[in-house]
Amino acid sequence: MKKKKRWRLSTTHIILLSFLSAILLGSLLLALPISARDGQAISYIDALFTATTATCVTGLVTLPTVSTWSLFGQVVILLLIQIGGLGVITVMAGLMVAVHRKMGLRDSRLIGDAFNLNSLSGLSGFIKKVIIGTFLVEGVGALLYMTVFIPEFGGRGIWISVFNSVSAFCNAGIDIIAEDSLVGYSTHPLVNTVTSLLVILGGLGYIVWWDLLRVVREIPAQGLKCFRRLTLHSKLTLTATAILLMGGGVVIFVLEYNNPLTIGELSLFDKIQVSLFQSVTTRTAGFATVPQENLTNATALFCLLLMFIGGSPAGTAGGVKTVTVAVLLATALSTIRNRDEVTLFGRRLSKQVTRKAVAVTGMSFVILSLSTILLAAVTDASAMDILYETVSATATVGLTRALTPLLTTVGKIIIILTMYAGRIGPISLAVAFASKKEIVNNIKDPTEEVVVG
Question: pTM for the whole thing?
Fold first, then answer.
């Protein structure tokens, strides 16, 4: 008698369901009257939208966070942001480490998939460092914010500082300062600097953190040459991030220089800092110091590109990721040069990495295309506003051209699904909904050439 095969969830399915569970639980809590500032229960669709945007660390909101939610509601939103930024699996693993429970192979695979890691060794230490590092950076950020917000808001400034620090580090872009995000602080150097640094640190990824700390510790013994010993991943991440941030700031500065609705009337220094902040925030942060609908069409299109690329792997940012784009460009260059191997910084990339880069970008583009077409079918808005909304949702950015509050119920559902798909990762979606693995054998299909390009 054959034994019945017991169906088990794959690691990818568990990751998908963990985020979904957090969203649904958060939406139920936010739908309670206690979560609303006026004591009147918010409609469930808006509660679900808010729970999704918080857990997926996106930042698009249908209702102003500062004036809609009570302290209880804001605490729920902040917890969802923290859980979403770290990842539900990471939080669960952190609890296991805290109670000294040993992680099994299945637990290790879950964490490895959640962080997209290639190795499963030393995961307990990795999780411990991730959680400690996160709280340390967020704590420092909150203290720096307090020097601005306590004098302005009194005791409430402490809560605003903590909320903003967590939201910035997790690249969520949700704040409880004002209904127009950080527009009131567009030329405030400290708020701009602290927010930018938190966003960048969260977007770099934890793997790069530890690698940088490793080489910094080697400086006394080996001097600055030790930076050559950074891993290829760190070199790609840091190089791509620097190029996109600085290059993005320059392009925005040039395109918006004479725009009176954004930086046209500002001093040179303020033009520079607003342009740099816009370059930073499009990398999935979602805070706005200028109304996005006031940007020129050229700038808006350029920002769409920055949003789609996003931050870096194994961090809190979204998008297809900087390393993915670097791998794609290197692959294209190698193909143009008629080379069989793809190399970067003197290192050869495996075919698996290049295939994954193509898959992630392709799936992201499919999600973006579908959501854009669907939203255009149910929304009476300009093509630019719709595309800005869907790119922002797909890459979990949170910037909008004032369209989010005007969405219909169907439009909200489309953006909810887009944010969820964008956060859990296109490659996870593909694996989760794929059929059972095919039986691997040595028989291969015949090869035939096709015309490309």
Answer: 0.88
